Amino acid sequence: MHPFAGGLDAARRILLERFDYPRFRTHQLKVLGPLLAGRDVLAVLPTGAGKSLCYQVPALLAAPRGLTLVVSPLISLMQDQVGALTRRGIHAAYLNSQLDPARRRAVLDAALAGRLTLLYCAPERLASLTRRIAEARTPVALLAVDEAHCITEWGHAFRPVYRALGVFRARLGRPPTIALTGSATPAARHDILAVLRMPDAHVVVTSFDRPNLTFAVRRVRDDRERFGLIRRAILTGTGATLVYTPTRRLTELVTRALRRTSVRAAPYHAGLTGSTRRQVLRAFLADRVTVIVATSAFGMGIDKPDMPVSRCGIMPILPVCSLLCQLPIGFGGNEVEKFCQPAPVLRSDRGPLGRLGTPTWGRTTSSPVSALSRRKWTGCSSNERRYA
Q1: I need a labelling partner for 57 at 20 to 30 A (CA). Which of 42, 69, 126, 232 fits?
Q2: How far is CA 170 from the centre of its chain?
Q3: In degrees rounded to 5, what are phi and psi of residue 291?
Q4: How far apart are CA 198 and CA 179, in angstroms?
Q5: Cα(303)–Cα(84) distance, integer angstroms
Q6: Cα–Cα nearest to 323, from 102, 147, 96
Q7: Cα-based distances in Å from 183 to 38, 43, 300
Q8: What would the DSSP string read from start to end of 337-355?
Q9: d(Cα 12, Cα 23) in Å, to the nearest integer?
């Protein structure tokens, strides 16, 4: 018997009573229907589409019968979501490298004793955690795998342990499982299902593209023009801004350059200490920092109310593939209001980036924008292309 008693009717009551939302979105219903019926689900939904509710609501339905284990590679997301759930009176905690040994033991004891509804866990801790859960015979009612694209897109470089998730899932007794990602090609979806050993999973795929988003590619001559465009986009925008870079070094360099021009910017990447990342996240959410220059370690799943009116998603260089462009794009434009400015992807024809020290990735003919949508280009100059 599956653990989600009451089905969609009970889920709607929880949504209203615990999260203050009057109704689910259409794509959320497409995910929740099969999941609450006991099926495994792979959900490809853009950031801002409410993916977290697709496992948080079932977690509350299943709470009397077992723990919901959420696998996430993003420490910032764990901190943000656990804080939000705790404020709503929901028993949630996380396990990652940020916690000292005493705190980790306390969280683990609470989980094994059945005092937690949701436990967020970094993938690197799954081996020991699943072994302890199995030894204690703690029931796991739901397994949620967030950022599931790490299995294939970054599986070997970013989070190699994601390739072992099927083994850990089997150790837990193959509980109902939901895998979530903002972007996955058909080949990536096949790989995710194979690794998680979910051949019969229900697959829900939606586009990250929304009518309130505008995309643009801007050709630049050199680093001086590149930085000038980044700074201009930041200064003419309102709200918060994210500048995504492919490397930690570039993140630090762009941040220092922005600070020299009196822009309140902060870097965010996996090379910073845990306390530094927490300080940056708190400063960003409290508007003490208006610009985050980040790798993909930041952003997805963070609840920042003024992001819809920002000029977020600036990428100083062209990503190596369209998937790496799609992931940060989903963070902006969650409201219906139309962007007045594009979030540009900047590309130089010079080859190496000189002072920034990172080569350009890809060629103009493989522009990520052309891969994002088949819609017709609107009017643009020879130096800038945009569509709406």
Answers
A1: 126
A2: 25
A3: -130, 125
A4: 10
A5: 9
A6: 147
A7: 24, 9, 12
A8: SPPSS-EEEEEESSSS-GG
A9: 7
**Angle between helix 126-136 and 101-112 (nearest 10):** 40
The answer to whether 40 and 202 have CB atoms below 8 angstroms apart is yes
With contact defined as beta carbons under 8 Å apart, do 179 and 192 qualify? yes
Residue 378 has a CB neighbour count (10 Å cut-off) of 10
Q: Please spell the DSSP secondary structure of 150-186, one letter per residue.
A: GGTTSTTTT-GGGGGHHHHHHHTT---EEEEES---H
Pick the closest to residue 234 from 204, 210, 261, 205 (CA basis): 261
| Spatial contact of 61 and 15, defined as CB atoms under 8 Å apart | no
Q: What is the pLDDT of residues 32-41, one digit of tens each?
A: 999 999 999 9
pLDDT digits (tens, 9 = 90+) for 333-382: 443 233 333 344 444 443 333 333 333 322 222 333 333 333 333 333 33
Question: b/e for 59-96, b at 16 or more Cβ within 10 A?
Answer: bbbbbebbbbbbbbbbbbbbbbbbeebeeeebebbbbb
* Structural domains of the chain sorted by starting position, each given as residue range(s) with its CATH number in brackets: 7-205 (3.40.50.300), 215-387 (3.40.50.300)
Residue 75, token pair as written in the block: 């420490």
Contact 384, 217 (CB under 8 A): yes
Q: What are phi and psi of 357, to 5 degrees?
A: 75, 20
